[in-house]
Amino acid sequence: MSIACADSRRVVGLMPTIEIIAKHLIAIFLIVAVPIWDHFKTKRLKSSADPRIKIRTYKKTIGWLWSFSVVACVVFGWRAVLTIHREPNEASWLPGSSFVIGFAGAAMIALFVPIIVMMRSETTRARVAKSLERLNFILPGTAEERRWFVLVAITAGVCEEILYRGFLIQYFRQLPVHIGLTGALVVSAGVFGIAHLYQGIIGIVQTAVLGALFAVLFLATGSLVLPMILHAAVDLRILLILREKSGSLSPGVSDARGS
User: Fold this and answer.
1) Cβ distance 172 to 187 under 8 Å?
2) What angle do CA 231, 73, 149 make, to 5 degrees?
3) What is the rounded CA–CA span in Å between residue 25 and residue 13?
């Protein structure tokens, strides 16, 4: 009986260590593995003639984002990931709720008013679409790709906020160097930008800035709900800008083709 109790205490004592190791592994994956995977993924997408490579890439992206988001919620606790509490003197520069409401409204206007203008002007639409040509290797073209991209955009809105805001900010705030809430915001935004390596240097900077804005909303409201909604909206608006291309593959065509 005493041996069983000792073994039980040993297992309980190991739990915090296992959780810390899991947190470190998730952080390493986001900081190191994701940019490396992104680099090779981009090379494959640009060089492959396989018409279904985008869809397979979308599926893999959805899979790893949800998998690691679930793990992050388990090891950190879902409340600790989806919400955040600031100490009285912590990040006192953050704006109040009135700013957050105003910013969210302005962001939605900034996101969708230009798209409404584009939908009324073929010249403007063509000019914007041309500016996105450098990302054609990853952006959806066919009807099937567009359907999968909806899932990618929603997944990114939910899961990237969980991982890069909810998890990483808490991680850098607590482990391994305790850089504080403001430092955690800046570093997590930088990691988020580098995770979008396929967009080039300008895209990395723009994404990092966007990530910092989402982080401000998260810290100001104490919840990931608003950043998730805005993030998904940013990605989904691509479908309003780009027209569907002809030649959509039948859903019955095997994903294994060309692999």
Assistant:
1) yes
2) 35
3) 20
Copy the structure tokens of residue 22.
């899991």
pLDDT over 90 (residue 150) = yes
Query: Residue with structure tokens 């390596």?
Result: 197
83, β-bridge pairs: 223
Q: What is the pLDDT of residues 134-145, one digit of tens each?
A: 888 999 989 999
- pLDDT, tens digit, 9 for 90 and up, residues 38-77: 999 999 999 998 999 999 999 999 999 999 999 999 988 8
Classify residue 244 by its DSSP letter: P
**Which amino acid appears at position 145 of this protein?**
E
Cα separation of 148 and 151, whole Å? Answer: 5
- The DSSP bridge partners found for residue 223 are 83
Kindly report the CA angle at 41 between 37 and 47, in degrees rounded to 5? 150
Q: Give the start-to-end residue ranges of the domains of the chain.
A: 2-241
Q: Rounded distance, CA 42 to CA 57, Å?
A: 10
Q: Which pLDDT score is estimated for 146?
A: 95
Q: Are 188 and 215 contacting, i.e. CB atoms less than 8 angstroms apart?
A: yes
The span from the CA of 99 to the CA of 80, in Å, is: 24
- For residue 136 the two structure tokens come to 């054609």
